[in-house]
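request received
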Amino acid sequence: MIDDKLVVDQGLSAGDHWMSVAADDIRQALTALKSDGYRLLTFLTCVDHLADASRDWPARYELIYQLRNLDSREQLRVRVFVDGDPPRIDSVHDLFPPANWDERETYDLFGVVFNDHPDLSRILMPDDWVGHPLRRDYPVGGDPVEFSAEHESWQTAPEKA
Amino acid sequence: MMSTAPGVTITRTGEQGSFGGELLTVNFGPHHPSTHGVLRLIVDLDGEQIRRLKPVIGYLHTGIEKQMEALRWQQGVVVTDRHDYLSPPINNLAYALAVEKLMGVEVPPRAQALRVIMSELTRLSSHLVWLGTSGIELGAMTMLMYCFRERETILNMNEEISGYRMHTSYIRPGGVMADATPRFFEMLDRFLIEMPGHIDEYESLLTMNPIFRSRTMDIGRLSAEDAKVLGATGPMLRGSGVQWDLRKTMPYSGYENYDFEMATSDRCDCYGRYLVRIKEMREAVKILRQALDRLPDGPVNVDDRKMLPPPREELETSMEAVIHHFKLFTEGYSVPPGDVYVAVESGRGENGCYVVSDGTHKPRRVKFRSASFVNLQALEQMALNHMIADMIAIIGTADTVLGDVDR
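response:
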């Protein structure tokens, strides 16, 4: 059973159960939940709450661990709030093997550093990429579009009209 | 460094192998004909046996999750089509269910049935692509012709119902794009009569085929325990004998009302995964027949002017309708703050969508939990100590879509 002292807060979001734990306790909490039967980590990801006015968030980055109990079919979402530059948290790849790539992806796209990860390298972006694209302060990008009004050559009449 | 076929490079490691030679690191891809898209594999070989295997992904990363944050809720549907490009309606469904759950909206029964019809047609077309390409890789050259013949019929049906052959965007938050046409039901009815015979045809080509059997039986073993620990889903998990299918275990969109069996196999190898997919195709035909026969009447969208545009004729008579129309297409609708995770069963496994809303008209975060991304992590476990030639069968039956892996 998970120790009540580890649980900072819990509740329901649109019918999904969730609990939040402190960043330092993440390994301890997930070990306890694993022994409670939540043996599958469905996914691990991060949400950037930069300039999010919908609630008073404790920190900028929220890490999400979605767990599932394959026998009772219950699901549980564990939330952890981390701050810092870069934000740091302990890796859980040895508790839940699917976390290995998920943590690499979260590092790649959000710049969250997972302590003791065996191979924390970029997974989706090229190795020499600068920046972490899913952070909210990273621009969406795209090539500038040249409109005919600002493009002289397009306004000249074609040779054969 | 030696170079052989295009896309393959070989490097000496200096490490002593058990057959008297040294271990070689062989790089496959990302542009290699047998790697299903742009998958790159770095394999350490001892003679012909695989000692280490490392998939390198990201060559098809298109930043779909970032794009979703820049689009309004109803615009995002078009992007969801494009991550698992072999099953667009199932991706739409995961996203639509997540948005609807967050908004507390329930779609009408006819829309639910149409969603089931599109999901099952997609499952069939996705399995057909898998069967055709895997057949070609394992020496059954005719499979591709047979499978793409039936897939063509499904794509024609997609065109009839939505106007698009592949990226349908048919399932949307609040319902479906439009009701199906009578011609669609005729096409579906004819297809369902013919399809069981076609599946028999595929089976007569492969199931007892000695070459196919010897190339897949006892190849790529993945025990039930390993499959669960590695988080594998879909035919990868059921091919290892685990009874887990989201349509049965956590039903959505009215799947609990259909009578079908979960396809499993205790073989735990490539052949088992093949049997599971063939059985799933037969079950999909069964579900489609039930859905077509019992299709309820009624609307196909929720009656909510704040979420979906008013009918065209109302725009000419009602000022209210014009305002709703204008607001929807300039600002869009906003979703109450909160987060939700919804998972549906695609041809490849658990296709989930985690959506976070901050109460505005654009999502704060959309995460696609793609089945291929997680299933691909089990590749090393399956391929260790097999011959290099068997790797092709193993990649084939893992059925990863690289668009789904890289998103």
